[in-house]
Amino acid sequence: MKCFPAISKRTMFIYFTLLFLLYLFYALNTCLVDEKKLTQKYLFIKRHISNYKNVPVRFASLLGFHFGEVNKYRISPVPIKRLPDALIIGVKKCGTRALLEFLRLHPDVRAAGSEVHFFDKYYHKGFEWYRNKMPPTLEGQITMEKTPSYWVTRSAPRRVYAMNPSVKLLAVVRDPVTRAISDYTQSASKRPTLPRFEDLALVNSTVGWGGIPSVVDATWPPVRLGIYARPLRRWLRRFPRTRLLLISGERLVADPAAEMARVQEFLGLKRVITEKHFYFNSTKGFPCLLKSESRSTPHCLGKTKGRNHPHIDPTALERLRDFYRPFNERFYQMSGINFGWP
Ligand SMILES: Nc1ncnc2c1ncn2[C@@H]1O[C@H](COP(=O)(O)OS(=O)(=O)O)[C@@H](OP(=O)(O)O)[C@H]1O
C-alpha cells in the first residue's frame, strides 16, 4: 500500500535534501549572528562570509519561512552597530573633517561624529567598546570613523589589520608647509603666548641669509608630521596600495566634487555626491555645503576649520620647502602620485 500516492520517491528525496540544506544554513546563520561571540577571529570570518550566508535565508523567507533571531539582524531593516568598513586615518590638519562631512552626504555612509581614537588611545578597551561607538547601520551601508592620529601611530596598521584586513583606508595629504602652519595656528589659538612659527620651525644654530636660521627643526611635531613617506611605508607594509586612497587636500578645496567622485568609486558607492552639493563661500574661502543630513540650509564647516594663518617670513617658507622637497619626492614615488607641492 502506498502512503503518499501523489509524491514520487524522487520528489521526496529532493524535498528532504532541500530541508536538510535549509537546516544547515539556519544553524550556520544563528551561530554567526550571535553578537556576543565577538572575537577577532569570529569577526574576520563573519565579514568574509556575510555576503553569502544571507542568500539562503532570504530565499527561504520568500518561501514563507521565518527564522526569528536571524531575521532580527539580517533581514529586517533594523540598523545595528558594526565595526568600521572604512577609516579616515589622517593626516592631521589636511582636511579630514571636510572629507568626513562631505562623505556623510551619501545615504549609504554612516560615520561616528567625533574622533574615536580607538587604535591609538583606547585599544585596550576592546572591539566591543569600539563597535558601540559606531552609529547603527543597515546591511549594505558603510560604517566609518576618522581619527587623524592613526596615520602616525606605529601600532595602528597592525591593529587595524587585526580588526579587518579588508578595511578601506583613506588619507588626506596636503602641502606639508601649509599643513605645518595650520597645525601651528591651531596651537596658537589655544596658547596666545606661543613663540612665532619661524622661531619654532627653524633651529637657532646657524643664522643664514636674511637673519633667519637655516636649519629646520625636524623634531618639532608640526614639521615632523609633514614627512609623509615614513608613515606611508608603515601602512603599506600591512595593506596593499589598492586598499589605501590618498586624497589631495588642495583638490578637496579647489574641486570637492571631483575628489569626492574618486572617494565614492574607491568605497564602491554610487556617485551621489556631486557639484550640486557644494558652493564656494568667498568670505570663508572654502567650499561649503548647500545642505546636509543634519541641516537643510547652506552651511560651512565650523570656525575651527579654515582659520586665518599668520604671515610667515618668505625666507623661512623657502627653507621649509627645501627641507621637504626630498621627502615629498620619496612620497610621490611610493604613492605613485605627484601632488605637485612647491
Ligand atoms: N571645506 C572646508 N572648509 C574648511 N576647511 C577646510 C575645507 N576643506 C579643507 N579644509 C582644511 O581642513 C583643515 C583642517 O584639517 P582637519 O579637518 O584634518 O583638521 S584636524 O586634524 O581634524 O584638526 C583646515 O585647516 P585651516 O585652514 O588651518 O583651518 C582647512 O584648510
TrEMBL record:
<keyword id="KW-0472">Membrane</keyword>
<feature type="transmembrane region" description="Helical">
    <location>
        <begin position="12"/>
        <end position="28"/>
    </location>
</feature>
<feature type="binding site">
    <location>
        <begin position="93"/>
        <end position="97"/>
    </location>
    <ligand>
        <name>3'-phosphoadenylyl sulfate</name>
    </ligand>
</feature>
<feature type="binding site">
    <location>
        <position position="182"/>
    </location>
    <ligand>
        <name>3'-phosphoadenylyl sulfate</name>
    </ligand>
</feature>
<feature type="active site" description="For sulfotransferase activity">
    <location>
        <position position="93"/>
    </location>
</feature>
<protein>
    <submittedName>
        <fullName>Heparan sulfate glucosamine 3-O-sulfotransferase 3B1</fullName>
    </submittedName>
</protein>
<keyword id="KW-0325">Glycoprotein</keyword>
<dbReference type="InterPro" id="IPR000863">
    <property type="entry name" value="Sulfotransferase_dom"/>
</dbReference>
<dbReference type="GO" id="GO:0008467">
    <property type="term" value="F:[heparan sulfate]-glucosamine 3-sulfotransferase activity"/>
</dbReference>
<feature type="binding site">
    <location>
        <begin position="305"/>
        <end position="309"/>
    </location>
    <ligand>
        <name>3'-phosphoadenylyl sulfate</name>
    </ligand>
</feature>
<dbReference type="InterPro" id="IPR037359">
    <property type="entry name" value="NST/OST"/>
</dbReference>
<keyword id="KW-0808">Transferase</keyword>
<keyword id="KW-1015">Disulfide bond</keyword>
<dbReference type="Pfam" id="PF00685">
    <property type="entry name" value="Sulfotransfer_1"/>
</dbReference>
<keyword id="KW-0812">Transmembrane</keyword>
<feature type="binding site">
    <location>
        <position position="174"/>
    </location>
    <ligand>
        <name>3'-phosphoadenylyl sulfate</name>
    </ligand>
</feature>
<dbReference type="InterPro" id="IPR027417">
    <property type="entry name" value="P-loop_NTPase"/>
</dbReference>
<feature type="domain" description="Sulfotransferase">
    <location>
        <begin position="84"/>
        <end position="329"/>
    </location>
</feature>
<keyword id="KW-1133">Transmembrane helix</keyword>
<feature type="disulfide bond">
    <location>
        <begin position="288"/>
        <end position="300"/>
    </location>
</feature>
